[in-house]
Amino acid sequence: MAVERLFVKGGIKNIQVEEFLRKKFERADYSHAEIQRTTLGTRIIIWVFKPGLVVGKSGKRVEEIAKEIEERFGLENPMIDVREVENPFLDANVVARRVARAIEKGVNFKRVANYYLTRVMETGAIGIQIKIGGKLAGSERSRFQKFKAGYIRHAGEYAEKVVECAEAQASIKPGIVGIQVKIMKEMPKEVKIEKEFKLEKQ
Fold first, then answer.
1. Is the predicted pLDDT of residue 6 greater than 80, yes or no?
2. What's this model's pTM, rounded to 2 decimal places?
3. Residue 195 falls inside a structural domain
4. 73 and 103 inside one domain
C-alpha cells in the first residue's frame, strides 16, 4: 500500500507541475511536459513552440523556474530541458489551447474550428476532429458541436498509436467551454499495407 500511495502522490504532483508550467508558458505556445525521476534528480522536458520565451537571456529564466518548482513542489534537483515543437498545427495540445484563446477573445467558435481544420490538413495531417462544448453562440443551454476533416480512428490500437488527443478550456461570460482536439498525423502501417495489397490484387 505504501508503494501504491507513493505512485499516486507522484502522479498528483506531476499534474500540479504540468498545470503550473501550462499557465507559466501559455504565451510560448506550451504543449506538454515530460517528468522523469532519475538518480541525479528530476528531469523536466518542456515542449513549446517558442522556446526563447521559456529560456530567457543566457538561460537565466530556466534556472529561476527550476528553483521555483523545487520550492513549490518539493521536487529534488529539477533539471529543465526546453525543446521546440516543430509544427504547432500538428500538436493537438497547442491547437486546443489556441482554439480556447480565440474563443475567449470573442471569435465565433465555428470560424475558429474551421480555420484550424483547414490549417492542420494543409500541414499534412491525415485527419483532425475538434469538439467544442458549452453555452455556445449565446445559447441558454449547453451543447456541443463536432468538426471533422480527413480520416480519424477513434478506438482500438491504431487510435492509441497514431492519434494525438488534447483538451483545453475557454472561460467566457456564459461559463466554461470545453475543447477536445484529435489529430491523426500518419496512417497506420498496417492500413497502408492493406491498401497496397488491394491495389495489387485488382
1. no
2. 0.81
3. no
4. no
